[in-house]
Amino acid sequence: MPRILLLGGTTEASLLARALAETGADAVFSYAGRTAMPVAQPLPMRVGSFGGVEGLVAYLKDQRITHVVDATHPFAAGMSRNAIAACSKLNLPLVALQRPPWGARKGDQWTHVPDSEAAVAALPDAPARVFLAIGKQTLQPFAARPRHHYVLRLVDPPEGPLPLPDAHAVIARGPFDLATDLALLQDHRITHIVAKNAGGTGAEAKLTAARSLGLPVILINRPAMPARQVLGTIAEVMAWLDHPGTDRGV
Ligand code: 3Y8
Ligand code: NAP
User: Fold this and answer.
1) Lesser CB count within 10 Å: N end or C end of the chain?
2) CATH superfamily of 110-220
């Protein structure tokens, strides 16, 4: 009977948690504890960081974990790299559950950039009204362009002052829908959108709204990841858990 560690924090992780709970799987759902009140899961939860690779190795041993599913966000590169290192060290089967990146459609005005610094450089010189839909961890680079008006969307109210002089924070937790995101872009007279190429459905509404309003989007590419086995659907992960096979995924 496999004992599974599910590294969560995404829509796909929540869907997989439901599938595992329905089959009575022995699994633990892990959050980093990045938000004040993470959504409850139908599995036993642990919240908080592990303490680096060593902490994760100790956890995997202590908890007698036999399989790790990394269903974290494509931008949660630190956690994913640690999972690869720890599973390799313990020779544990690891698989990543990840959604494909978003692709532009005909007529979309998308600019792809490698990181937040390049996203700042891609903003116009003239003052703009920017929907900064990247959360709160990577806002600092935008302080270099204080003349723009920024609308941020955060999960929790900011604890201290934002690093941007002209910014308005919308407090909301996704997944988001088209009506909400259309209203946000129109109400705030947004002229540019900056987003991470997260993929998935939970954050896609702003791109659909931008498309219908003919607004330009600056999209930050995902960080590069070391080689690992990646699956795209819940069904594939469930099958992998039954037969992890020779390819341990690390
Ligand atoms: C703590 C768990 C589920 C998971 C839902 C998905 C969808 C809604 C859209 C916008 C973009 C953003 C942000 C976003 C989305 C889902 C998913 C997703 C983007 C929660 C959650 C945790 C987090 C952490 C949070 C980050 C922030 C990023 C906001 C829960 C709600 C911008 C990413 O305040 C902070 O410090 C927030 C930090 C990491 C990115 C950042 O760098 O600031 N997610 N988001 C997880 C943990 O503790 O382990 O609180 O319930 C989960 C979800 N957020 O179960 O249905 O699957 O992507 N999350 C991005 O994609 O760009 C919002 O506003 O349009
Ligand atoms: P990150 O930068 O890759 O992780 C930094 C550190 O946070 C990790 O090294 C680990 O600490 C801890 N950590 C991250 N995810 C964890 C998890 N699920 N369980 C336990 N510890 C975790 O991660 P992040 O980008 O801050 O993302 C944090 C969480 O938010 C993840 O669950 C991710 O899925 C979710 N999320 C992130 C984004 C995003 O844009 N980054 C978007 C949506 C959801 P130790 O090394 O000390 O163990």
Assistant:
1) N
2) NAD(P)-binding Rossmann-like Domain (3.40.50.720)
